[in-house]
Amino acid sequence: MSLVLRAQVAAAAQDIVPAWPLDSFIAVNPLAGGEGRAFGSSRDPHVLVARSSADFTTDFHRGRIPIEALQRTLVTRFPVLGHTMRVGGTSLHASSIAALDMIEHPVVAPASAPAEDTALDNCLSTWIAAYLNPDGLWVMPHRENGFYAAWRRLAVVDPATPRAVRRRITGAPEGVDAALEKAVSGVATGELRDYLRAQLAPLPGWVAHIKWRAEKVGDIDLTNYLAVRLTLAGALGVVPASLEPAPVAPVDTTWERAARIAGLLTEHDAAPADVAAVARVLAEHPSTEHPLTWQAAYEDAYRADMLSGLCSSTEPTERPGVQVVLCIDPRSEGLRRHLERFRGVETLGFAGFFGVPIRFSRYAAQGAINALPALLTPRHRVTEHPLDDAVAKSSVASARLRGALGHALHVADSTSTSPFAFAETAGWFSGAITALRTLVPSVYARLERAFSPDPDDLPTRMLMSESFTLDERAAMAATALRMMGLTRLAPLVVLTGHGSHSINNLYQSALDCGACGGNPGGANARAASALFNDPEVRTVLAGSGLAIPDDTVFVAAEHDTVRDTVTVLDRHDIPTSHLDRVLEFENFQAEAGQRLVAERARDLPGARTRRTVAHVRRRADDWAEVYPELGLAGNAAMIIGPRELTRDVDLGRRVFLHSYRTESDPDGSALETIMTAPLIVAQWINHQYYFSALNPSILGAGTKTIHNAVGTLGVLAGHRGDLRRGLPWQSVGFGRELIHEPMRLSVVIEAPLERIGRIVSGNQVLRNLLDNEWISLTARNQIHHTWHRYTSNGWTPATPATARQNKETLT
Question: Which of 306, 362, 491, 783 could covalently link to 312 via disulfide, CB atoms 3.0 to 4.6 Å apart?
Answer without folding.
Answer: 783
